[in-house]
Amino acid sequence: MRGDSWISSIALLAGIWVAVSPFVVGFSHPVHKLWPASILGPVILGGIVAVISLAGLVGFWGIQLRDWDRPKRSTTGLRQAR
C-alpha cells in the first residue's frame, strides 16, 4: 500500500468499527424500538466516515492506476532551448 493512502485506510477501518460497535459492545436495545438513537447514531456516523474514506481510496488509486501505464518523462535527456 502506498504511503499516501494509509490515512484513508485507517479512516475506513474506523468508520466500519464505529458502525458495528453498538452490536459488538451490546448496547441496550428496547423491545418497542427497532433502531434506538444509541444504535442509529453510530451506525449512520460510521457509514458516512466509511463511505467518504472509501471514496478517497478509490480516487487515490484511480489516479495511481491512470498514471501507471504512462511513460515516464525524463528531464535529463531534454535539449536546452537556445
Q: Give the SSE order as H and E letters.
A: HH
Largest sheet: none
Backbone structural class? mainly alpha
Specify the overall morphology: rod-shaped
Our count of helices gives 2
- Rg over CA atoms: 22 Å
Number of strands: 0
How much β-strand is present in the residues? under 5%
Overall pLDDT level: 82
How much helix, percentage-wise, in residues? 55-70%
In short:
63% of the residues lie in helices and 0% in strands.
Molecular structure report:
Helix content is 63%, strand content 0%. It is mainly α. The protein has a domain at 36-67. The longest helix is centred in the middle third of the chain and has 32 residues, at 37-68. The model has no long low-confidence stretch (mean pLDDT 82).
What's the arrangement of secondary structure elements?
Elements (H helix, E strand, L loop, with lengths): L5 H20 L11 H32 L14
Descriptive labels:
rod-shaped; 63% helix; 82 residues; mainly alpha
